[in-house]
Give the backbone structure.
Amino acid sequence: MLFLWSIPALAQELDLRLVEREIVRLTNEERSRNGLSELVELPPLSAAARDHAHDMARNGYLGHDSPSLGGPTERVRRRGGTEVVLAENLFRTSAAEERVAQDAVRSWANSSTHRRNLLNPEYNSVGLGVARKDGRSFVTQLFAHQLVAVQRVSKKNHRLIIQCLVVEGPRHGGIFLNGTLLARWEAGGDGRFEVEVPEPGPGGKLKIGQQTSSTRYVLIGEIPVGLMVESAGD
């Protein structure tokens, strides 16, 4: 019985993911028309956006601050994001599901405040979340400026395997523990890289650095190990 009930829920979730992708496409289309670079969709941003969309749908409100999840920055950090520059667009509609993406982007483009977020050249990444309840759709769109996005952290034999995506800037760098270089990384043609480092002890802080010269690294963000780590076996 549980399996039978889960089929419609899964189908709706898949449909909503298509709506999310269409909103990203239309957003980038609007940016391209205005001479701006396209935004890269990042998993931590989308996870945080979905959390908020579902919270709004479940509790029937539209707002940037959730009593249970907090504001945009708190929600992104809870999902392992390291973004420090954030903006958020929200949308609610009773329109049919196939109209949600177009109506949302059109509404934001026609609002001076939301349009500033859509067309802000400072942002290079985006996350989308759509939830639907009782015939109403709730949309959360998060913007950020991210140089290197941490996509997954797993642990095996007391070592961390860190998977990242370079969104902007140098495609090589290092992982640092409390300021000491632990390992170097180099991204592939798609901007992705994987690096393995020893698991830090209590109080140890891992940071990503991009290499700007033969001897210089710029540290750009802390890796949220406590929030993201998954066990891959010991």
